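Researcher: I'm comparing several assemblies side by side, and this is the next one on my list. It has 302 residues spread over two chains. Same procedure as the others: predict the full complex and return the structure.
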Amino acid sequence: MNDKKCEQQIIDAAKKYLNGHPPEWKLFKGKKEYTADQILVALEKDPNFREWFVNNILTLSTELFIRGKK
Amino acid sequence: MKGIFVVPKFDDATFYSHLWNERMREQIGDRMEKELLLIEDAIRAKDEEALLRDPTAMHVHYDHGSEDAIYGNDLVPVIDLDNVSLLKGRTAYNMNCLSAKTLGKAAYKEGCLAYWGSITEVSFTSDAEEKFGEALNYGLLMVVEGKTWLEALQLARDKMTEIVDELVSQGNGLAAMLLREDRDALHCWGPGIETPTEECPVSRTIVSLFGYKTLQKLRIMRMKVKQHLSMS
């Protein structure tokens, strides 16, 4: 699987995951804050946010894999 | 042990940092004497006054930060590279973004005994705020219990790993992802922890000839020139 396809799979999974989060739910990142809908927009339109998000999911997945967690 | 607690509250993020600090103070109880600079009292003039009055008290800051400053309730830095020497001879616990990167390094070079903080932006989600608060408070609680700063750093990282696993098992992968990043961004400049050295030979020369503050000012100037060029 190439990088682009992998990235798209992660974004699609994130969209499913975020679907149904209540409007009052927020993610805080430094001085910025995002509702679930704003994260979906940022994943589509902000390459820096997308890169940060995808890298973070991959890093956590790798760590859990190494530590033998599901 | 005494601490000067600088804790603004003026937006949604600081609503949570203020809440976490409040919980921590409750947990610490009378094991630490506390001077409180909360909300409108959390400003530079009052912080400087408190620091000058008590030259050994720990400085505790919960709010927004940047690479070279930590902020007060009026968004003006309470500590930056111009008054960082006020941290000399004391320890500093920071629950703010980025300040361990440049300000922490400068503080340590100026004689701060231990500077705890993050080298990236701190991230969290509102649904798991209690867990993030627990994780980000843990280091100070360990210090109050008598651990060294180096021990507290390792224990805090272990605690955060435990909470990451808990969040994963609860199906909150997004919060787990952010807490993993917060954990890896924790840093403490202090005894037993490698003394910082500049990798770049030019930076090393500037530091040895003119001091660390000059290097930071040159870096800020370079950043402003780059920003100006990218806008024009």
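Model: For your comparison table: The interface with chain B takes residues 17-18, 24-31, 33, 56-57, 59-60, 63-64, 69-70 of chain A (CB under 8 Å).
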